[in-house]
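Assess this one:
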Amino acid sequence: MTARAVLVMVCAVLLATGESGNADPQTTLRPRRGIGLTPCARLLDQLQPRQGLTNSANLAMVSWFQGYASAANIALLDARGMHFVLAELDESRILSMIVSFCKANPERRPVELIDSYIRDAPKHKVKWDSRQIKWHK
C-alpha cells in the first residue's frame, strides 16, 4: 500500500464527520456509529457516485467498505484457510452496490450488504498457517 493510499484512508476517517465548518448540519453526513451502520435513508442524499472520491461521503464509504472486506478476508484466512477476491471492489463497484442497495432498502444499513456479499462471494482455499500473523509477543 502506498503512502498516498494510507493518506486517503486517514482523510476518509477525518472527513466522515462532514464537509467543512460551513456545511449545513442538517444535511451533512455525521455518522455517530460508523458509516457502515448509518441507515441507508440518511446516506442516499450524501453518496454521489459521479463525484468519485472527491465527495467525502463517497470516500468514507469506500474506505470503510474496503477495510471491512480486508478484515473479513484475514478472519476467513485465519479461521478457515480461505479468502475471497477483493480486486473487483473498486470505488465504482462499491458505490454502485451501496446506492442500489440503499435505494431498494432505505431502512437497512450498508453493513448488511457487505456481510451478504462476503457470505455469497466465491471462496478460494489457500495454504495458511493460522499463526502466520503475529500480533502479540
